[in-house]
Write a structure and sequence with these properties.
Length: 272
């Protein structure tokens, strides 16, 4: 099956319909790397196997040799392939410690964006709770400065995405556990484009902008009050409502009627 340009073949059945345009155009090298990695996972290629030549892979998949070279480089960087001088490229045994990585298709799949949003919601509720228990006075002051930075960005006509992400990283830093900050920074790359779209949507709706400001302020207030339960609840509800705003912006499909969204201590039915 040739890779060809994106959209040249049917994407097959999906539980969630894809948008007319992908969030981010996927490179052919990413698609080929994903395909080869799947062959490794399935056992079609096993440790010690020699990879077909660059020229042969290019013909098999209908891409240029440059695309093949880039895809192979990706897999080498992940420790899945290695070159032997004068012999070719061979499959290696999986490394004992692998770096966290998502399928490159996460960058264009609406279903995957929803999955990452859900993952972030689960994480950030607990991160906020830990921050409420552990934040230093200086870290609480830094959180308040982050809120002002978001306001300033919006007043200057910028989308505020960088400032918003910095705010959530500051909460992670307030846990005292650097792994949370690293994990959020990793997830950001998969949400940045979706956030830009929804930020643009919020800028056209004053009530959305005010909702976000209130939600952010509530998280900081709970952390400053050392109320872990409130911090967890406020952070979780903020991400739930953020998902609804992505739906309102048309970035992701709306949830089924009857899905409920937290608002303070109450819930309401998401608009259909």
């Amino acid at each position: 099956m040739q890779l060809g340009p994106p959209g040249s073949a049917s994407a097959g059945p999906s539980a969630v319909p894809l948008p007319a345009q992908p969030l981010i155009t996927e490179r052919l090298s990413d698609r080929l790397a994903s395909l080869l990695a799947a062959q490794l996972d399935s056992g079609a290629l096993t440790p010690g196997d020699r990879l077909p030549t660059e020229a042969r892979l290019a013909v098999q998949h209908g891409v240029s040799r440059t695309v093949v070279r880039e895809a192979v480089h990706q897999l080498k960087s992940r420790g899945l392939l290695r070159s032997r001088q004068g012999s070719g490229v061979f499959v290696t045994a999986p490394p004992p410690n692998q770096s966290l990585a998502f399928d490159p298709k996460v960058l264009e799949s609406v279903a995957a964006v929803i999955q990452v949003v859900e993952l972030r919601r689960v994480l950030e509720g607990e991160i906020a709770a830990l921050a409420a228990q552990r934040a230093t006075r200086e870290q609480i002051r830094a959180l308040k400065r982050s809120l002002l930075a978001i306001d300033s960005a919006m007043l200057e006509g910028r989308d505020g995405v960088d400032e918003d992400m910095a705010f959530h990283r500051a909460i992670a830093e307030a846990t005292g556990n650097p792994q949370f900050s690293r994990l959020l920074a990793f997830l950001e790359q998969y949400l940045r484009e979706a956030m830009r779209v929804t930020k643009g949507n919020e800028a056209r709706h004053e009530d959305f902008m005010q909702q976000v400001r209130c939600e952010h302020s509530a998280i900081v207030a709970a952390i400053a009050a050392r109320d872990a339960d409130a911090a967890r609840r406020c952070a979780t509800e903020h991400l739930q409502r953020g998902q609804w705003r992505l739906e309102a912006a048309g970035v992701i499909p709306r949830r089924k009627a009857g899905a409920r969204i937290g608002k303070g201590n109450k819930t309401r039915t998401a608009p259909a």
